[in-house]
Amino acid sequence: MTDDHDPNDQDLLADDWAAALEEQAETVEFEQFDAPVGKDADQQRKLDAILDIPVTISMEVGRSQISIRNLLQLNQGSVVELDRVAGEPLDVMVNGTLVAHGEVVVVNDKFGIRLTDVISQTERIKKLR
User: Which has more pLDDT, 32 or 126?
Assistant: First the structure.
């Protein structure tokens, strides 16, 4: 099979992604804090030690419980009913922990997710403890 794609297709794809990202772009300003001291400094050093550890991010459309018998009967074309209604936000999970909600977006036949509700950094850190 030959690849007869127009060289401009890749440029159009890049332009579409840029437009989609620009659509949701916003400036985020972070509050500046003084350097922590004492117990807070120790906790900050512990947190800094884990910031570069790779994690697995996944988007969860929904869940379902089925018996092993029904699981073994699944094949191509089978439909599994999920616990969510169509159009409901997806859960964005990092190592199994909910960090945000989002919606599916499609740009030139590629899926992505637009975050619609992000759990605050404070709440996420509390869940780590």
Answer: 126
What tokens appear for 40 in the block? 């807070």
- The pLDDT-based confidence of 24 (bands split at 50, 70, 90) is low
Q: Provide the token pair at 41.
A: 């400094």
Can you tell me which residue has the tokens 């199994």? 96
User: CATH code for 7-128?
Assistant: 2.30.330.10
Q: Is 19 left (phi over 0), alpha (psi -120 to 50) or beta?
A: alpha
Helix (H, G, I), strand (E, B) or coil at 92: strand
Q: Element (H or E) spanning 106, and its range?
A: strand 97-107
pLDDT tens column, 77-91: 999 998 888 888 899
DSSP-derived letter for residue 61 is -
